[in-house]
Fold these 4 entries.
Entry 1:
Amino acid sequence: MSKPRTLVELYSNRKEEQRYRRSVKQEMRENVLAKLDRGEELFPGIVGYEDSVTPQIVNALLSRHNFILLGLRGQAKSRILRALMSFLDEEVPVIAGCEINDNPLQPICAACKQLVAEKGYQTPIAWLPRERRYVEKLATPDVTIADMLGDIDPIKAARSGLALSDEFTIHYGLLPRANRGIFAINELPDLAAKIQVGLFNIMQEGDVQIKGYPVRLPLDLCLVFTANPEDYTARGKIITPLKDRLGSEIRTHYPVTREEGLAITQQEAWLSRDGGGAFDLPLFVAEIVEEIAFQARQNKKIDKRSGVSQRMPITCLENVASNAERRARLAKDTRAVARVGDVYAAMTSLTGKFELEYEGEVKGAEQVAREIVRDAIGRVFEHYFKEANLHQVVQWFELGGSLKLPEDASAAELLKQFRKIQGLVEATAPLGLKASVEPALLVAGCEFILEGLYAHRKISRSEERGYYAEEPVRPEPTPRPEGPGRPRRSYQ
C-alpha cells in the first residue's frame, strides 16, 4: 500500500490519522511498551546498565518526561541518547517543504497554516524518517540564542516586502527545526545562562520569543540532556529553574565488575585486524588491561572528579594488539600473541586519559601509569596463582639467575630461555596452558608469571638486567659487650 501524498489521503485512513496526531512523547511511550511486550532488548550495545540506568530511563519515557543523564566521561551517555531514536516510528508525515517538520494534521507555523488554507485537502505531504528526527547539539559557551531558537532574517524580509515583525521573516534555530523529534544537548551546564533561560518556556509552555517578538510555537519535542555531576550543582554552571523543569535526573556509572568492563572493551576495541595475520588475546592480558581502569579509578593520585573513561582500556587494548602485531613481524612469528610487556608498551594510551592530583603531578603521569599497571598485574596474578607454589621459580633467581628478554626474539627462542628456569613453564597450568600449546601462548604465560612475581615484589626487574633477585643485605657483625676481665676485641 502506497503512503499518503496529500492531506486528503492521510484523512482517508481514520486509524492512521489518529496515530499521527500523537505527541512525540506519547509515540515513544507506546513504542517502549511494545518493545517490552515483545521482550526486545531496549539498548543494544549498552553493557552494565540493565539493573540500574536502563530501568530509570524506561520510567522517564513511560512518564513522558524530559530528562538528563548525569555522569563522568566515558559512561555511554551520548550513545544512550542516540539509541532513543529506536523508540520513534520509522517515519512520520510532514507538510512538504516545511522547515520545522509541521504535522499536516496540526500545523503550527504561519507558512504551513497559509498553505493548508490555500490548498486544503490537496496539501502535499512528505515523510520524515526517524534518523532525521534526532538533533544533537554540543553545548559550548559561544552558542547563541539565535542558534537555539532562531532570528529575524532581514534578507528574507526585504525580498518578500514584509515587516521584520512578521512571522514569515523568521529563520528558525535548532530547537524549532527539531520539532516532532528528539532534541539532545550534550554538556548542558556549558550553555550560557541566558540560553538556559531560553529553554524555560519551550519545556513548559511551548512559547518562543525571537528578537523580542512573542511567537506562539507549541513545539512537539522530547528534550534530553547530559552533564557532569560536578557542574550540575548550585556551585556549578546550571541555573536552578532549569533543573526544576526536568522530569527525571538519571545517574550513570562505570562498570561495576571486571566482567562488565571486559564485555564493553571487547565490544568496542578494534581487534579484528585486517591483513595483520593471526592474533591471539589471552584472557589474562585482557583482564590486566581492564583492571588498569579499575585501579586508576581508586588511585589517590588521580582526580576522581574528572573520572577515568572507559575509553582507557579500549585504546590500551588496541595498542596492546598493535605492539604484538609489530613484534610478531619483527620476530618472524606466524601468530601475534598479546603479552604483559605489550601493556607497558601501550603507556601512550594511558597517560592522557586521567587528570592528576598534586601528589600525582609531583611524580609525573608516566610514573603514576606504571604504578597502576603494576598494581593491575598484581591483582590479576593473585586471582590465578593465589594457591600456586612458585617457590622454585623464585629460588632460581635467588640463587643468582637473571633473565633479559630480547625485544626481537622469536617465541621459540624465548621459550628456550624460559625452560631454563626450573618449574616456570609447568607453572602456567592455572592459565589453562599446556606444554603442547602454541609456543607464543606459553611465552605469554611465562612472562605473566614473572611480571606477577615482580608486582608482588618477589623478584626485581630493570631495563639493564631484566628479571633478577635482589641480593640479601647481610647485617654488620655487632661487637660483644665487654665484661670484667674480658679483653677488648678488634673487628678490623
Entry 2:
Amino acid sequence: MPLKRHHKIIIGGVSFLLVLFMVASSLFMYMIFTKQTTDVTQINQKITNLQTDTQTKLNELSTSILEAETELKSLGSQIGSLDSEMTQLKASASSDFSGIIEEAVESVVTIKTDVAQGSGFIIADGGYIVTNAHVIEGATAAQIITYDEETHNTVWMIGQDENMDIALLKIESSDYSPLTLGDSDNIQIGEKVIAIGNPLGLQFSVSEGIVSALNREGDNGVEGYIQTDAALNSGNSGGPLINVEGKVIGINNFKISDSENLGFALESNYIKEVVNDIFQQAYGTDLI
C-alpha cells in the first residue's frame, strides 16, 4: 500500500533530523578532536620548554659548582701560601723559627764514631746523609742517631771529597724526609739563619744568627763559604745552615779558633755539585 503524503513528510523529517544529528555529531567530534590535538601539542610544547629550562638550569648549576670548586682550590692554595708566608714573616721579623725548626730537625742526624762525633742531615730519599768528611776521618765504626731516637749501626760510606770536606753516607731506612737545598746564589748578607747540630754532644741543638759575609775563602782555596754569627761548636760540623724558608743554604764546616761568632758553612750549590760527583763515581748518575 503506498505511503500517504503525511507519512512521507514524517519519514523525510525524521531522516533530515537524523542526518542533521549525524552532521552535528561529526562536527562536535571533530571540534573535540581538534581541541584535544591542540591541547596535546600545547602540553608537549610546555614539556619541551620545561625540559629545556630544566637543562639550562642544570647546566648553570654545574657551571656554578665547577666555579665554586675552582675558587675553593684557589682559596686553599692561597691559604697554604699565606701560611708559608706567615711562617717566613715570623721567622724574619720576630726571629720565630719554631715552625721551621719543628720540620727541619726531623731530618738532622747525630753521627758518632769511635774517634769523633758530629752532625749530618738527610739529603735525599732512601736514607742518604751528607756530613763533613772530617767527622768520619780515621773512624772504623760509626752510629747514626736520628731525631726519633733510633740508632742505626749499619752505615755505608758512598764516598767522600776530602778537599771539599764532604762525605756521603747511607743508612738502611726510607722513613726520613730530606731537607731541600736552596740556591746559594740568592743568599743575602744580613738574612737570618739557624744552625742545627750536635754541639759538644748536646744533640739536636739550634743556634740562630745572620749571614755576616759571603764567598769567604776556605783552607782549600775555594771562595764558597758563608760567614755566620750563629754559634758553631765542636759537634756542629756537618749540620745544616737553614734560612727562613726552611731550605739548606750551607753545611756547617768550621769556626775560627779563639773567636766569637765566626763560623763558616760551605754554600749549598757546592754541596749539590760535590754530592752528585760522589754519587756519579759510585753509581753513574746524579743523586739530587
Entry 3:
Amino acid sequence: MIPVSASPRLRDLLRSAPSGSLRVLHRGRDAVYVEVAGRCVGVVGVRATAVPCALRSRFDDLCTPDGELPGAEAYLRDGDIHLDGRPVRIGRLVDVTVPSLPSTASSVAAVPVPPAAVAGLVGPVPTTITATDVARIIGRGDGLTPLGDDVLCGWLAIHRAAGVATPDVDAAVRVNADRTTLLSATLLDCALHGEVLPEFAAYVLSLGTPDEPATAARLASVGHTSGAGLLHGARLALSALQGVAA
C-alpha cells in the first residue's frame, strides 16, 4: 500500500468517480499522473512538487518493489487509485486553500517587471488581467503546465486570498481550459477554488514581513518556470488590489 494525504475536494472526487482503468498521463520515479473523471490527479513522492491535485506520499520514490517505474497499470476501485496493483490510500487530509491576505500585504511593491520568460507571454506589463488576456495567454508556453497558465493561477489565487470575486476572468478560464494540458487545466480549476502549492501559501503568509524575500525565492524556484509564473501572477494581482484599496 502507498499511504497518502490529500485535500478534501480531491478525496471527494475519487469517491464519486466510477471504478475502472485509468489513463496514465505521466510516469516517473517521483510522480505519476492519471486522468480521473476528466481531471488530472497526481501521486507524488517527497521530491515532487506538491500540487493541490496530488495525493502526497512520504516515499523517496514511487518505484515498484522490483525497482520498475510506477504506473504501468492504473485503475480506480472504490475511491482508491491502484498503481501496479498497489492501493494508494488516503489516510490524512491536508488543507491546500490559500491563506487570507495578511494586513501586512498592503506594503507590497507596485507593479513588478516580469521575468524575461513571462514578459514574452504577457507583453507590456498590465496592471491586472482581464478576460481578454486569458484568451491570449492560456496554454502559452512549454511543458505540462504552460507558463501563461501559471501566471493565471497566481493571479486567481491572490484574488481568492483577498475574497475578491473575478467572474469575467473565471468564465474565460473555463471557456478556454481545453486549450491547455489536462494537468494545467486541473491546476487552473484548483486556483479557481483557491487551492495552491505549499510554497505559494507560505509566500502569502509572509507578505509584508521580513520573510517575504525568502519565500518569494522559494516559490520562484519551483519547477522550470512554474514558480516564476505563479509569483508574477500573484504580484500583478496584489498591485491591482492595492490600487483598488487606495
Entry 4:
Amino acid sequence: MHSFNRRVAIALLVAATFFMENLDATVIVTSLPAIARDFGTVPVHLSVGVSAYLVALTVFIPVSGWAADRFGARRVFGIAITVFTLASLLCAASTGVVSFTAARILQGLGGAMMVPVGRLMVMRETPKPDIVRAVAILTWPALVAPILGPPVGGWISTHWSWHWIFLLNLPLGAAALAAALILMRNEPMQRQRFDWGGFVLSGLGFGLFMGGIEAASRADVPSALSLAVLAGGIALLAVSAVYLRRAVQPLFGLAPLAIRTFRVTAVGGSLFRTAIGSAPFLLPLMFQIGFGYSAVRAGVLLLWLFAGNLAMKPWTTRIMQSLGFRRVMLGNGLLVAAGFAACALLTVDTPQWLICALLFFSGLTRSMQFTALNTIAFADVPQPQMRDATTLFSVLQQMNAGMGIAVGALAIAVAQQLHGTGGHQAAAGDFRLAFWLIAAMALLALLDSMWLPRDAGQRLLTGK
C-alpha cells in the first residue's frame, strides 16, 4: 500500500475508534431508565456508570504514552481495542449496578489506551505538511459522537434493547482490530521504568478535579463537599506538575506546554472545548424542559448542528490556508461566542426555521474552531516530544468533554440561584442565562489566541 494511502487509512481507523470511545460516553444517557428497570433500581443511581467511564478514561490516559514506548504502539493499540470490545460484552451481560460499573471502568481503561496511542502513531508517521489533513480526520468524532449519542441510545433502547448499545461494539471492535493488524507496523520498544508516583498523583488529581466539577453541578451534593473535592484535585494536580518536572523519567513530560502553539490549545483551547461541549447538553434540555418540545423533536433539531459540522469539513483547510491560524481562531472564536449569545435569545415563539439556521451556523463554527485548535497544537512540537504532547492533548480533550456536561449543568444551577428558582425545574429563562454564561467563557478563551504571532503554525499550511 502506498505510504500516503496507508497513513490516511490509519488516521481513519483511529478516528473510528475515537468515535466508538466518545459515543459510548454519551449513548447510554437516554438509555438509563431502561437499564435501571432491568437492574431494579432508579436511573439516578446509574449515573455512576457514566461517571466511572469518564473518570477511568481521564485517569488512565497518562499511562498510554509510556505503554506505547515500552511495549510498542501497535501491540498496545491492538490490546486496547480487545479490552474495550470485551468490556462492552461485559456491560451487556451486567445484571446489577456493581457489575455494570466495573465493566464501564474496564471499558474506560481500554478507551484510555486506544485513542491516545492511535493518535500518537498518526502524528509520528505524518509529515508536517500533511498534519492538517490528518487532524481534520481525527477531529470529527469529538464533534459528531456527543450529538448522535443520546438519540441513537434512545432509539436502540426503545426499538431493540439497551444491550445492543454495547453488543454493536463487538463487530466494530473485531473489524478495527483486524485493520490495525494489517495497517500498523511494529515499532522498537524502549525499556523505561513505570513512574508510579506520577501515575498516583496525576490519577488522583484528575479524578478529584473531574468529580468536584460534576458534584458542584448537582443539587444533592453539599456545596462545601464539592468545593473541597475540587480544591483537593487542583492541589494534587499542582503537586503532580512539580513532581513531573523534577522526575528523571516522568510518566509524561510537561515540556510541550512551553511551546506557544501547543499552550494556546491547552489553555484557551480547553475553555473553548468545554464551552462547545456544553451545547449538546444544554440545547436538548432547553428545547424539552424550557420550550416543551418532545424528545424526538429536540433530537431532530440537534441534527442541524451535526449537519453544520459536516458541511464545514471540506472547507477548513482552505480557510486556514487563506487566513492563517491566528485570524481564524480569533474571528471564528467570536462567531462561536456569538452563536451561544444567539441561543440565549431563543424563545418558545422563535420560528423553527430560524432555530435550524442558528444550529447549522453554530455547527459550522464549532467544526472550524475544533479543527484549528487541534491542528495548531502539533505545529511546533518536535518528534522527541510528540509522545508527551499527544498524551497531554488526550488528557485535556477528555477532561474538556466531561467538563462540558458538568459546566453546562453548573451554569443552569447558577442561573437558578440568580433567578431564585433553585429546587424547582429549570425554566426557559434559566437556560437563556446559562447560555450567556457559556458565551462569556467562549470570549474569555480568545485572550490566549490574541498573543499568537501572525505567522503561528504557518509551516503546517505552506509545507515550508
